[in-house]
Amino acid sequence: xxxxxxxxxxxxxxxxxxxxxxxxxxxxxxxxxxxxxxxxxxxxxxxxxxxxxxxxxxxxxxxxxxxxxxxxxxxxxxxxxxxxxxxxxxxxxxxxxxxxxxxxxxxxxxxxxxxxxxxxxxxxxxxxxxxxxxxxxxxxxxxxxxxxxxxxxxxxxxxxxxxxxxxxxxxxxxxxxxxxxxxxxxxxxxxxxxxxxxxxxxxxxxxxxxxxxxxxxxxxxxxxxxxxxxxxxxxxxxxxxxxxxxxxxxxxxxxxxxxxxxxxxxxxxxxxxxxxxxxxxxxxxxxxxxxxxxxxxxxxxxxxxxxxxxxxxxxxxxxxxxxxxxxxxxxxxxxxxxxxxxxxxxxxxxxxxxxxxxxxxxxxxxxxxxxxxxxxxxxxxxxxxxxxxxxxxxxxxxxxxxxxxxxxxxx
Length: 411
Ligand code: ADP
Ligand code: ASP
Ligand code: MG
What we know:
2 domains, binds adenosine-5'-diphosphate, binds aspartic acid, alpha/beta, VC0802-like, 4-stranded antiparallel β-sheet, 34% helix, single chain, Carbamate kinase
């Protein structure tokens, strides 16, 4: 008998017939002799609706109240699924984050899980009851409700799987697994049979929202296999697992693109020690995450400094940077929200030359201008004009042969 955590995303519980479909799948897994802990997201569109409500009543919502509000979507879906299971004769009980005791820090809207208590869930399992746990939410030390950032139910699923030492965390979504690129923008995208934690972390951080990055971080830390699959089919999906020597290292396993960042350039910054720190300290103090940074040294004692921030924090960051730019006597601050970042990711890049030049050549052939470049051991990202984002992703997908050939054979 295995213990399996099954997490169902918003589309999978999008209406009552889909909730019944989920209940049938849970029932089948139980009949096969397993124990199941279910985690669910809010019904599709519900979290967006709640966020809009918050902003309609207050354009700068207090984040404690914001979390109290946007966590309610999951309260509805857990209760509905528990009722659907009960109507099929399956003992089930819904639990909110604070009821399980999913303890987080107090970083409202982006809280981090610190500890998951499992006594209550274990007690229910022993009694033959299937727990249905609300994803995306927890409780801080002072009893405040917190949420884990968009897509955070994935992290709830994996954190529960780790705490319960489950055999696998199954993530049920609206596509059949992790693809070489977003199947909704590139019809040639192909499903990967497996992918390493490190590659998946890069894909997730670069815009593949199929898994929340923190979920993959947790899975890697506790070595929990994640099986990403569709709630609408019985096909095997993608296994996210640790790298092993037998695994063939494909050069590039995926292409991502993301339009959620904006670019800020500080023009003619005096080129002397401490300036970068002056610019970035107020930004980090405001909890804004800076992604790419480019700085050239120049001959005449001045340099331009360009970086990207999430669009959600763009206005705040711009205000802070303008203030610093005046203090340090930079010439001006330029801003650009019309950018997209396309990236290629692959563990095989570590040991291959020529990947970057192949990427740049493929983009050049389509006349796509590269505005910024950044690299890590297993990824290369280019910022391009937003209107070329999807085209660039498709071009790179083809250039690296992801649309054909065998993917990920065991060697
Ligand atoms: P859920 O509501 O089930 O959590 P999400 O919308 O968060 O689902 O994530 C699934 C979506 O992720 C897919 O519909 C797809 O558009 C998107 N996606 C982006 N990149 C990829 C990728 N490389 N592989 C699979 N899906 C991807
Ligand atoms: N309902 C939350 C969201 O829409 C959490 C999730 O779906 O994972 O972001
Ligand atoms: Mg999701």
